What does this fold into?
Amino acid sequence: MIDVTTENFEAEVIAASMTTPVLVDFWAPWCGPCKTLGPLLEKMEEAYGGRFKLVKIDSDQEQQLAAAFGIKSLPTCILLKNGQPVDGFMGAVTEGKLRQFLDKHIPSEAALLAESETQAAEELIASGDLQTAQAKLEDALAANPGNDDARFDLIKILISTGQFEPAEALLAPLLKQIPLQLRFEALHQWLQSLVFVTTDPRGQWEIGQFDALIAQNKRDFDARFAKSRVLIALDDWTGAMDELLEIIMRDKKWGDDAPRKTFVALLELLTPPKPKVAQDANGKSAGGIELMGKTAIEQDPQAQLVSSYRRKLSMMLN
It folds into this structure.
């Protein structure tokens, strides 16, 4: 348990919540129910073994913080994840009710193990050790079958290393989900392209063979689409998207909308992950507290590329 003030709020609450859920207990020395709830919160923090962090804010001493969270009565508890309030409750509650509240938001030990394995795997992927990363991700899924981040990374490895059948098996149930997660649909479209290259005779063609057909007939969409799949297999994804745009420009619905679906899939796979930023454009934290100085966040070239191709698709469809 940590006492928080405006001076350490950003570090102990906002920054800390990026990795561990933070439960903020707004209290005051004169508040009777606060004296009942406080020890129970500390007991739960110990019982949950570091799976969440408890901080206390004296509302009388830290009125700016209390106002930022709109505190109307005491005690009030607010749970933050990734710099944002996600849930809360007012008044003293029983231990059973408190456990229900925490269990709704606090990851289990198995989930934390899976998350740790996933993070380790992502570092291995970045270093190029895909074999060890695959093993880590398989362990993560065994510990927590609901870890979609681990499943996504594992399927990406399976596809990129040519393990198409196990990738397809992992994808199959996800493609039946409602609503369908775009990132898994993206993997499906990528997998289809690579399977085409290994099973269709045109998958072994030189790019010039496709260009010759297209030069004879610019509406040879079969040749253009096949060419786009070969370009994907060659990791020329922007070249593939350019070819797909040519189809979309001439016939938006050709091939049961396959060019658009493939294009959107490539955009999804090319989009860099969003950084976890606790500060908004106005220089305030998620809790509305003014920060010392403003950080200029420049868009990286990959994000600029994706944004450019999104605009191109939008122009073609409108």
Q: What stands out?
A: Residues 108-161 form one domain.
